[in-house]
User: Fold this.
Amino acid sequence: MAVVTPPAIVILGPGALATARRVQALYPGAQVHALQGRVAGDVAFSELGAHLRECYTRGLPIVALCAAGIVIRCLAPLLANKGAEPPVLALAEDGSAVVPLLGGLTGVNVMAREIGAALAVAPAITTSGELRFGTCLLNPPAGYALALRDASASSPICLRAQRHAWTARHRGWQTSICRATPRRAMPSV
Assistant:
């Protein structure tokens, strides 16, 4: 699992509880945050917008079992630095749709794939780098490092190390992804 901090799994009614518990089983320590007076969960809250903003500012990954638009409107005032945002996903109450919204640099698409696999649904991944190369180039997988290959090269960004190179060519881009070795630190871009 990619997520280190357990997510807040936010629900608004009893129709989402079974799906929320299935997601909770994926992430040890995750808690179901439930709207007080409508459904019981591990953590109660009384106002969705304030609760989502609190979770977001605390850096908690958020899996919200509600419409994506609700989550976007609640968090919009806080969106300023995409490099520092936690993963935020919208999930249909019945588990039929997994939509990564924020946190491309902090593993939201990995979470979407994990949740999608557990619920047998394809996640709605829209990040172009992930679609082209299967990984976020600005957030390489464990054991890999982002490095400047060559200033004169056709593609200045690559993931590289000393051995085990893999090269992907797609629409004129060439990206090398190699397993990093602990002996050598790679320069960052």
Observations:
- Confidence is low (pLDDT under 50) at residues 151-157, 159-189.
- Residues 8-126 form a domain with the Rossmann fold fold (CATH 3.40.50.11220).
